Amino acid sequence: MSKRQGRKARGAQETQRKVDYRNLRNPFPPLNAFTEDRIDAIHAASLDVLGRLGIKVLLPEARSLFETAGARVDGEMVYLPAALVEDSIAMAPKSILLKGGVPERDITLTLGSLIFQPGAGCPHATDLERGRRAGTLNDYLELTKLTHHFDALHMLPPLVEPQDVPMNVRHYAMMRGQLTLSDKVPFVFSRGTPQVQESFEMLKAFRGVTDTEFSQNAYCYTIINTNSPRQLDVPMAQGIIDFARAGQVSIITPFTLMGAMAPVTVAGALTLSHAEAMAAITLGQITNPGAPMTYGTFTSNVDMKSGAPAFGTPEQVKASLGAGQLARKLGLPWRCAAGSAANINDAQAAHETEISGWGAFLAGATVIIHSAGWLEGGLTISYEKLITDMDMVQTFAELCTATDADDDAIALTALAEVEPSGHFFGATHTMERYQTAFYDPVGMDWSNIGTWKERGSEDANTRATAIWKDILRDFVPPKHAPGKIADLDAYIAEKTALGGAPPES
């Protein structure tokens, strides 16, 4: 029996602490990086960028939609009037219900709600036993299981690219993994209309959603990255249109690194990011007024000596705080991010992820992505780091739970029971509560008091390896209606025999 199993077995005989991390509300007022007049100035400058400098749009259909709505189009450049942008932003919903496979997995995207995702979009995976490697389907499925295991991770992201699966059929494998291994909200890549539509069809059929229900509610999401500075490419513009028409969620995320794809100042980078986000939201709203879309940012800086991305920096935190102010000015739910540029799961990795995570948390972000497992600026996702980062994520989640401060919690009886210079270990108040007073959410068991000889030189990474292996070994997927998996497999086999759906670019 592992130490983790032993803790679980002992806990089964005790009063268990009940926690609910599935629907979090951030109880703290968001912090500001700028005065309100400076936020107004950044917003005005962003509108000036869109109206005077314009944005390059590579998809002809998108340019046509913009022109019909009143924008000026000159070749591939689109110039957006401020009134068009502001009217479009006003149409975007301020609260979005995203429906999971069961009602308990539904989440609401709105200002004040708090939703976590692990690291995403990585070409590589790594763990202590198998080393760093190009991402495989097995890695993707294992990481999906780990994501499903933790209630404080609310949405399934594209954790790692399964590069052993050809692109024309990769969406089948990824959607099958999400649907069969989890009942959380799934992700769909915007890699061309055929792949998007087939992913929608698989989702609807597996979860028993009618076409009408699908058009009236959001069941999945995509992430739209602009090509900073000031460009919307073909698949991203097409993704906005496809998801808007289907009534599914687009999380708009300019990736603006100060000094590289954006001005070197925080305010300058936010001006660009804000302009690009508003342009993308405008495209979605003129496609389908009221389409569910969120504001977003991923603004940090680069190491100006090497050009490499940097995370967990003061500049990233300031940018997150400023982005929160801009999102609140628009009234939209918004996405922010943690992250790390460290090469391995070490002290640097923990520091960068926690500092950037605190920045997003204190900024009032609705969705915090890359909150667990991300290394090398997104090149790699680490199994061990996902586990150790969950201590941070679930600390944030615990901060969102109510703090017990009734008369009994104030503990006058305990203070009266314990004599001066005594201790509270055996006090009645303590004994009634010690099983539920403190919570080790991941099972890392950080305390070293009296256990060094037992553990030897076992470090956090070694303990994390044992934990993720335990989770995968004991994993039980959600129950599905009879025949659903067989029907899904038959659909995939049929489409694969026809050649799949090559991504459009």
Oligomerization state: single chain
Average per-residue pLDDT, rounded, comes to: 93
The value of Rg in angstroms is: 24 Å
Count of strand segments: 20
Biggest β-sheet description: 7 strands, mixed
Please report the first level of CATH classification, the CATH class of the largest domain: Alpha Beta
Low-confidence stretches: 1-15
- Percent strand equals 5-15%
Number of helices: 20
Reported CATH architecture of the largest domain = Alpha-Beta Barrel
The domain count comes to 2
Enumerate the strands of the largest sheet in spatial order, edge to edge or round the barrel.
1-7-18-17-14-12-10
Pfam families: MTTB
GO biological process, one term: methylation
InterPro entries: MttB-like_sf, MTTB_MeTrfase
Keywords: Methyltransferase, Transferase
